[in-house]
Amino acid sequence: xxxxxxxxxxxxxxxxxxxxxxxxxxxxxxxxxNLPALTAQQLxxxxxxxxxxxxxxxxxxxxxLGLPSLPSVAQSGGAPGHDAADLTSILSGTxxxxxxxxxxxxxxxxxxxxxxxxxxxxxxxxxxWSSADRTVTHLxxxxxxxxxxESSKQAEQWAGTxxxxxxxxxxxxxxxxxxxxxxxxxxxxxxxxxVTVAGRPAYQLVLTPKDAxxxxxxxxxxxxAAERVPTRVTVTSTVTGRPALTVGFTDVSFTAPDPSVFAxxxxxxxxxxxxxxxxxxASSSVPAPGADDPxxxxxxxxxxxxxxxxxxxxxxxxxxxxxxxxTPASGTSGAGDLxxxxxxxxxxxxxxxxxxxxxSNLVSALLTDDGRVLVGAVDAQTLEAAAAxxx
Length: 391
Prior knowledge:
Layout (H helix, E strand, L loop, with lengths): L11 H6 L3 E4 L15 H9 L6 E9 L20 H9 L1 E9 L2 E7 L4 E6 L3 E6 L4 E6 L7 H12 L3 H4 L5 H9 L2 E15 L2 E10 L6 E9 L5 E8 L5 E11 L17 E6 L16 E7 L6 E5 L4 H5 L13 H12 L2 E4 L2 E6 L5 E5 L3 E5 L3 H10 L2
Parallel strand pairs: 1-8, 7-13
Antiparallel strand pairs: 2-3, 2-12, 3-4, 4-5, 5-6, 6-7, 8-9, 9-10, 10-11, 11-12, 14-15, 15-19, 16-17, 17-18, 18-19
C-alpha cells in the first residue's frame, strides 16, 4: 500500500497460511454498491499495481484458528511486554492496531490487554516501545541512508520476540501481497459482490484454491474502489467453512499523517536497549529455527506447499530430558514456555520418523525428533507426507 514505507513480510505462520495465487476466471464484479463493473482480471491487475502515497487508520485482526488448549505462557513468566491474554487474543480473538504511513515513515500501534506496543520506522532508525513493561528497543542501521524498507525489515526481525509487535506487519496490504507473491495455476480467481469497508465502497477478488490438502478454503480481498488498494483480507478454512482470519480497516484515510507521528522520544524511566542492524534478533533467548541450516526447503507447490526448517533443537531438548514428562527445560522463561507448549502437543509417528503435531483451522506444524520443523496451510496427512519427502 505504501511505496517505500511499510513493506514488512507476514509472520511465518500466517505467511504459510496464504501461499500463492493464480489463473483468473473471467467473471464480472456485481454492482451491489453501484460501482462500475470490473472483471476479475481487471481487479487482479489493479491490485498488483496498487500503491498509495499515504494511509492512516484502524485495523482489526480477527482470528479463529481453533488451536488446541496449550499451557499459558503467563504461568512461567512469559516474555517481556505481553501476557497469555495478549497471545490468546491474537490467535483466537480480536486485536486492534492503529497504522500511519507516508514518505516520512511508518508507525503501527498494537493494543494489548496490558498496554500498547509501538513500532516506528523513519528510514534510518526503528523504535519498538512496550508500555506494559516500559521497555524501548532502538535499532539503528549501520548505513545511515538505509531505506524505510530496510528499516522495516529489521524491525520485523526484532518484533518476533513480542507477538503484538510481530502483528504490526499484518495489514491488509501485507497479507494480500503474501497471497499474490507467487502466481501458480492452482487457484480459481473470481470477483465477489461489492461491499463497504471502513465506510468506503470496495470491489472483492475471491481466490479459491484447487489443491487437495490445503486448509485454505478461499481468500477474499476487498479493494478500495477509489484508491485500488486492499482494505480487507478474509481467509476461510476448509475445516469450518468460516473465516479463520480477517484483517481489515474499520476506519481509514488516505491523507498523509502529521510527520510528528513518526517522532519518538523514550518516556522517562523507560529501559532503553540500543542495537545496530547487525545485532537484530541476537537478543532472543530461544534458539532460532534453522540455526544449523538456515536455508529453508519447500516441499510441494501452491497452496499445499510446506516449509521445512532443519537444524532446530531436537524434541528431547525442547520437552525436557525424558521427552515425555512435559517438564519445561531449564533456563530462560522463554525456553521454558516453548518446552511446555511442545510437550503438550500430541505425539505422532510414521515412515518419516516421530514427532509432535500442532493442527488448527488454518495452519499445521510438525516438529520432528530429528530436528526439523514443518509448517503449512495443510492438513496433517500432507504435512507428514512432506516430512517423508524431506528426509
